[in-house]
Every structure is written in C-alpha cells, then in structure tokens.
Amino acid sequence: MRAILAALALWLSAGAASAQGVRLVIPFAAGGPADQLARLVAPGMAQALGQPVVVDNRGGAGGVLASEIVAKSAPDGQTLLVGSLGVVVLGASLQPKLPYDPARDFEPVALFGRVPSLLVVQPALAETLGGLAAAQRKLGRPLTYGSAGPGTTMHIAGEMVRLATGLPMTHVPYRGAGPAVADFLAGNIDLMIADTPVLLPQVTAGKMRALGVFGSARTPLLPDVATAPEQGQPSLVMENWYGVLAPTGVPAERRAALEAAILQAMAAPEVAARLAAAGLQAGTGAAGFRAQLDRDQAQWPALLKQLDIRLD
Carries keyword Signal (predicted)? Predict the structure, then answer.
C-alpha cells in the first residue's frame, strides 16, 4: 500500500494530472449496483487524483457497448470501466464475436469487492436446499426460477442448481432483476437466485425464504443462512464482483495512481461502512483483482459449456 501511495504522490507531483475528468463508464442503467458503487467512490477518488471523476452510464447489449467504449479509448487512464463478473467474464464466454477481447484489452485497477448470490424460495415451498426435491415432487411439475434475462448470473446460477441437484427446472427470463422479483412476490415463480443485497429486504420482510448462500463463506448480511457448500453442494458458488478496469496500455505509474486513489476512497470510514452494508467483501488492488480474473477466466467458460447456456 505504501508503494501504491508513493506512486500516487509521484504522479501528482510530476504534474501528470490534468483538468480533464476521469470517466467511469458503467455498463448498466443508473441505479444498479455498479452505478451506486461508482458514485460512492467517485468523490474520494477525485479528491485523491486532483481531477473531476464523472460517472457515464452506457447500458445496452449486455455490457458490450460500455466495454467497447473503454477498450477502444486512448490508454491514458482517463476512461475506465466499472465491470462485473457478468460483463467481463460470463458475457465474453457467451458472446464469442465481441468487438474487443476481454482478456487482452483490459487491465484490472481495483476490485470493489465480491458479493455472493442467494437462493430464495416461496416461504411455504421448502426450508432447506435438500428440501427442494420433496417440494418438486409435491408440486408434480418442474420448479420455476426467474432471472434478469438469458445469460445473466441469475440464469447461470439457476442452471447450476438444476445440474447439481438433477431436479427438473424451468427458466423464466425477465427484463431485469426488478421484474423478476415483482413476479416472485406475486407468487408466479418458485425460486430465484440473485445478489444477496437485491433480495435482502424481501427476506427480512418474510416474503422470501433464504435457503442458501452461494459463496465460499457466509455473508454478514445473513449470518444464520448456511452456504450451499455447507449443505453438501460444493459446486454451488456464484460470487459476483464489481471492479474498475482500464484499457490495456495505460502507463504503469498512471495505473498505480488510479489504484491508489480508488483504494484510498474505499478506505474512508463512511464509504467502507456502505460497502460492508452492501455485502461486498474482499476488496483489493490490482494484483488481487488480477488473481480473481485469472480464476474466473479459467473456471467459467468450461462450466458454461457444460450448462449449455446460449444467447441465440
């Protein structure tokens, strides 16, 4: 951390900072997790860099639009992508004919953190993951699960459950997580899997029953809910992440300065508290983020092929 802060100081003292604002390009509409995280960190980042930091929402095409903007931008550290597991890794595996190469055209700067998915069911359906089999037999039909659309983490997690349990399940896609939650609350689907913070209010209100955390460890948001691996399903781990990436070719000093500015902003007490409240864990710098990307890029393409998930 001292070395990173030293790089930041060197970059600033050399006068490399310009009046031009740093642009955080968000591959989603305003109001979602990536947008909220960017707006949370931007003020502290701007203060550390001595530059304005603006948030630019460029939703569309499953994150391809925003990613292409950043991938093809000048490698000066002025245009950055706030990416996620779904956009940077999963989307690339499901859309092979992209106008950029996610593994080649981006370099990690800093990771805001990881958040596990949560499996919820209608409150009367089952009380444990193991109870889903009896619930399905009682219903006499496939279990229905909702998602934010084909190829999303919600869809992939549902197919992971189908593969791990062998239960007949039917995918019901929606145009976003919000409509899926609304239809669940209307009683029209049996279960869903989404980022824990998205479902937490309804779980707390008793409108959803949480059966398992799809993470390597329990979430402090729901400490009494066991992980899927604890319940005998070691393959059911879906931890979404959010982080900042730069186009390949940004000078090392500039990347280090950006990394230091983001980490400094994340360490501010109010920001750190809000990140924790959002369920984000294991935020880290470029080296830790690179390790996360390497693991994901090694794991997910083969699993997606096994699940036979396609976007066509």
Answer: yes
